């Protein structure tokens, strides 16, 4: 035992929160080993010391060490590295001094926040529940909502120094076996010296680089469970509230929870509004640039005169004006997301109104383009998924560049290039443009 203790101390670099408590059982010296910053003292008392006092009484005079523990799971530890692995998971180790065999039992300290609705995925009529930073709790929430014996979970421990688990969840018989195997294979090939974060795992799951988002991430339980029931696969990591879902199509990012719960007519109307918002955010700025620079003859004469007069005091081309205004509005939007809610409202209103009015007065931008950019930003906020908003910003810049070079022809060329890539993209072997393009080959 003494040699094993020295190996454990060396593996943990003689950390001072490693606690070793000696005690006596059946006349033989034994030791309890645990990390006090990871273990709960109450669980240690219930699982070990209460039974220890009983073992010392006449009623339980010859209680063996593996029957002494009252924890649900008891693991036998054979080497120092395995012992360190269990210690870092919040487990306690117990063993006799004259034996190298140790027993690991659960004494993990649980610091779980309450289940709340995700602040970045609000819903009007959906559930007020989201994932938390505890893997077991998240799996419990999925199983309770799915209520099916077909829900299957597979665990992985990834990384050189990994102590937290990654769980792959799917519904047996609904999810395709080939996609499940491909997902497991990609996760198994992930190598990291530190803990696994969903952002790093997302890059590993993406086989082909693209401007289109290919991995859907959510913190909502109802959204993740609904996608699981439609044959998708969920990937969850410990110490994170983000759930990754694969494979997904372009339309998965345009679906909202409210549309899933409302009737068909109301859902169709909501989807139509999201589609209009997407088109506005993509094309309204580039159409304005193409019209003012190349094709102003398509507008009525009075409107053309008004637009040209508003641009007289602007000292640079409309495309530069567009890029500056989009950048300013994006900065305001990102600031409001990361600030406290009360301060975010003030920054959003004050920044949007005061900055825009000041820029028009000093001739930095035209007043017409303020309205154009505002319509574009409002349209982008109609999109439910945050990943799709990043895609919209990239495509918006591409369309602006195309419009500034060739006008409407530039917009058409960029759109054709995007559509070709859109129809040929197949993450996990599933067409990204489903249901337009069939999965059958």
Task: Report what the structure shows.
- This protein is an alpha+beta fold.
- Helices cover 50% and strands 13% of the residues.
- The chain has 16 helices and ten strands.
- It has helices spanning 2-11, 41-55, 65-68, 80-88, 135-146, 177-188, 198-205, 221-229, 257-261, 264-293, 301-310, 318-338, 341-361, 367-381, 386-406, 408-424, and strands at 18-25, 28-35, 74-77, 91-96, 102-106, 151-157, 165-171, 216-218, 233-237, 243-246.
- A five-stranded antiparallel β-sheet has the order 1-2-4-5-3, sandwiched between helices. A five-stranded antiparallel β-sheet has the order 6-7-9-10-8, sandwiched between helices.
- α12 packs antiparallel against α13 (341-361).
- The radius of gyration is 29 Å and the shape is elongated.
Domain module tally: 3
| Number of continuous helical runs | 16
State which percent range the strand residues make up: 5-15%
What integer is the average pLDDT?
82
Compute the separation of the termini in Å.
62 Å
Helix amount, in percent? 40-55%
Q: Report Rg.
A: 29 Å
Q: Give the overall shape.
A: elongated
Number of beta strands? 10
Tell me the structural class. Answer: alpha+beta
Largest sheet: 5 strands, antiparallel
pLDDT under 50 segments (min length 5)? Answer: none
Question: Strand sequence of the main sheet, in spatial order?
Answer: 1-2-4-5-3
Order of helices and strands: HEEHHEHEEHEEHHEHEEHHHHHHHH
What's the arrangement of secondary structure elements?
Layout: H1 2-11, E1 18-25, E2 28-35, H2 41-55, H3 65-68, E3 74-77, H4 80-88, E4 91-96, E5 102-106, H5 135-146, E6 151-157, E7 165-171, H6 177-188, H7 198-205, E8 216-218, H8 221-229, E9 233-237, E10 243-246, H9 257-261, H10 264-293, H11 301-310, H12 318-338, H13 341-361, H14 367-381, H15 386-406, H16 408-424
Antiparallel strand pairs: 1-2, 2-4, 3-5, 4-5, 6-7, 7-9, 8-10, 9-10
Helix pairs in contact: 1-4, 5-8, 10-14, 10-15, 12-13, 12-14, 12-15, 15-16
């Amino acid at each position: 035992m003494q040699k094993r203790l020295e190996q454990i101390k060396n593996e943990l670099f003689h950390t001072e929160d490693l606690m070793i408590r000696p005690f006596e059982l059946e006349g033989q010296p034994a030791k309890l080993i645990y990390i006090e910053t990871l273990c709960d003292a109450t669980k240690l008392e219930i699982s070990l010391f209460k039974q220890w006092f009983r073992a010392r009484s006449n009623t339980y005079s010859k209680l063996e060490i593996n029957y002494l523990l009252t924890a649900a799971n008891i693991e036998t530890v054979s080497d120092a590295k395995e012992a360190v692995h269990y210690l870092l998971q919040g487990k306690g180790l117990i063993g006799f001094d004259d034996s190298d065999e140790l027993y690991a039992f659960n004494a993990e300290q649980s610091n779980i926040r309450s289940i709340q609705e995700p602040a970045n995925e609000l819903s009007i009529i959906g559930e007020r529940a989201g994932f938390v930073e505890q893997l077991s709790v998240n799996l419990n929430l999925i199983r309770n909502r799915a209520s099916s014996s077909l829900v299957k979970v597979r665990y992985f421990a990834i990384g050189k120094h990994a102590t937290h688990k990654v769980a792959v969840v799917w519904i047996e018989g609904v999810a395709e076996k080939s996609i499940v195997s491909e997902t497991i294979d990609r996760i198994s090939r992930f190598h990291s010296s530190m803990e696994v974060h969903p952002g790093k795992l997302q890059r590993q799951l993406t086989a082909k680089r693209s401007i289109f988002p290919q991995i859907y991430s959510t913190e909502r339980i109802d959204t993740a469970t609904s996608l699981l029931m439609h044959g998708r696969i969920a990937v969850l990591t410990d110490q994170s509230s983000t759930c990754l879902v694969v494979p997904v199509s372009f339309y998965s990012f345009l679906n909202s929870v409210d549309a899933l719960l409302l009737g068909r007519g109301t859902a169709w109307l909501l989807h139509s509004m999201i589609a209009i918002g997407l088109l506005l955010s993509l094309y309204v700025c580039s159409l304005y640039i193409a019209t003012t620079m190349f094709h102003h003859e398509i507008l009525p004469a009075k409107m053309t005169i008004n637009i040209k007069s508003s641009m007289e005091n602007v000292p640079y081309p409309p495309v530069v004006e567009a890029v500056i205004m989009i950048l300013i509005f994006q900065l305001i939007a990102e600031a409001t997301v990361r600030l406290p809610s009360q301060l975010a409202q003030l920054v959003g209103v004050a920044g949007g109104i005061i900055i825009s009015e000041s820029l028009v007065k000093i001739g930095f931008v035209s007043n017409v383009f303020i309205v154009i950019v505002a319509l574009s930003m409002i349209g982008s906020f109609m999109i439910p998924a945050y990943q799709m908003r990043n895609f919209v910003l990239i495509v918006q810049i591409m369309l602006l560049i195309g419009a500034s070079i060739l006008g409407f022809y530039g917009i058409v060329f960029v759109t054709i290039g995007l559509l070709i890539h859109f129809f040929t993209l197949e993450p996990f072997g599933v067409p990204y443009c489903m249901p337009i393009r069939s999965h059958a080959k």
